[in-house]
Task: structure prediction
Amino acid sequence: MTKEKHIIGRVPTVLVFKSDSDQKAVVTLIVAKCCRKRSRKRLFFIGKAEFDSKTAKHINKDILPLVDNILQELNPDSKQKAFEISIVNLSIASVMDTGMEISGFSADAVVFTALLSAALDIPLAQDFVVTGHIASADGDIRAVKSIDSKIDAASQCPGIRRFIYPAFDPDGSRENFQGGQLEDEKAIIPHARSFFKMIQVDNICQLLKTILDERDIVIASFEGDYFTACRDFGDQGSCIEQTLAFFAEGNEKRFWHNIEISALRGDIEDIRELLCARVRYQIRQKQYPPGFGRKLLRIILSVPTTARRTQLADELVPIDLYFKLCQFVGIDDLKEDSRYLRDIFEGRAGTIDGKRLLDDDLEIREGKISRSDLQKIFSQISSEQVSKKVSQPIDHARAVYIFDKVTVDSTDQFFKTITSFYLHLISHTALAPAEVNPNQLEASALQLLQRAFANNGGENAARTEAFHGNSGGLRFIFDQMTEQFKFEQKTGYINSILIRAVDQESIDERIEFTKALLEYIEPWLPAEYKDRPASTLIDRYQEIIKCYVSSLDKLKQTFRRF
Amino acid sequence: MPAINNLINELSDNVIAREVGAVHDNARAKYQIECNTVRDFPEFIDVIADYYNYHFQCVYNCGPLSRFDAEGQVKNMVEQIYRQNQEDIINAFNNAQESLDGGVRIVLNRICDAMKFRHVEQYIESVFDRYVSPNDWDSKVEIIREFIAHCSSDLGSSLRREKPESYAGDYKKFIRAYTDSLKRTSSAMRGL
Result:
């Protein structure tokens, strides 16, 4: 997967030109650049292709304030910016030594995107075209005409893979006046899907979510000093509030996600850029981020050994930045954390051992659930909840884990690889213990592997598979480990809920609870449990739960057949 | 008979895994998805078409397929894969949407495995083509007889029961049966 070029302030679009008898659409680009403010005027339209005066006025009056609003809310200290806007002239116009004039509202969305990209320094992919009218000061996007001609033109352009267009009739007004035409336009969409992804948007927040890269948003949030949202963006009922929340909230999560993705890809330059930007931001904020070293170490140790050894053994962040950041380390715990950071920044992550690797802030289940609310307990162990709480995070973890080669060259590499994968798996589940020693980690990884292959030739069969790759190599091994891990975590999850529910209850109450439980999971239980009195099963929850989890999996497979 | 030894060697599990399987497995191992679920059917089609196109380029070292081709081919493939379990593309979509059975990653795994087995079949056919002279009936019968004798333990009972002459006229039938037996062995291992 090669990275595609992202460019600041440059947005592809499709414009429609009308002649006496016909109309033609062409793909072109709108380019916005921040420039020094020379007068009260803030928008400068340059180049031979220009907007007509009505459109230019509309951009000044409606689009620019929308951009200003977002910038001001994200960073109240930011100053108003001035912009140069140009439209890439078409070759037909340039060979005739002439320019062209653009009118109408369909370039609103594209001009808005270009201005915001330039203002926030967020680069944009170049594989999409966007069209749409920004119809309110809150950023609602409304329909534009000639979608069919635009699709036709974009389909001729080989680099275009996404076509972003406004909803046809979100307020129902066209249905009343243009019913026939509306149906014709809608009918084009299935056909257009054979050329590119067709993405419909109703407002600027949806538009930005579609086109902006999460990594670029994080980098921009460092530069723009809004990485950590300290402001309340309202109830997020309006498009603007949703947009502000999109930019300013969840950046911590975005940052770690991108570090992990880049580490798995072995993209050292990307990791460097993200880390340096983060460290500079923290220095400006005069704050050491708690747990930074441990989180980073955990990610680096969980990437496949080949990528880690070859890519991550270099300097990641200049040491002078590290020392500047360390001025803000305070309490002892942070001092230990900052020592990991130094090892990582200097490319020595692989040498760290015997340390605390996992978050203390992971969810640790404590406290007792009231047994009186049986329905609540049962809803927590329903197949949907178990899937949501346990299976889906584990499946997600497996889905994002990439590696270069499905075979290994040595036993040492095999053990390191399965340990890294195991660490990755447990890092994505809230059921992980608070402390892990790397030696214990390797032992736990091996035990999981052994359990996963218990009925399939054991550890030796797994190792042979990793060397020869006859059935998919590491792909197969990781899948088996994932399934085993999922099964165990599901069992553990349900067990913990039930134990909390009945802990410290009297025998009679436990029998009552067991009766209710057996009744609830009766459809999934094997016959041998169905007729037994609840009193004989009160200490055998684990057994019952294993049957329940296995039955859920079997049931799923059965349903898949219908 | 060195020819049969070479043929058997080229069709051994390890060689097939190295020459064909690894390319597909490595391609799948390197493909990262940002999200393991999809919101709707068009997004599902986008995800599987993108993967199919990526896998195709990776394995065959060629340029991208057109969106139309990628979408059409992958839809057919997913239909075929799921039909083996009396399912269809909607079951694949439901899994990708609700992630009750591994989500998008399992759907992509199945596409990868289908492409791998198709490629294995082509590989076996090309090996046979090199060793079996198309206009020499006796040598065709002989080599198939030898192959069945050498690999009897790996072959399904139906393959062992048939006379070599019955495959000599159209040994592609034999190849398909052999690939299926390999597939069954592999599925059995995965299913254990």
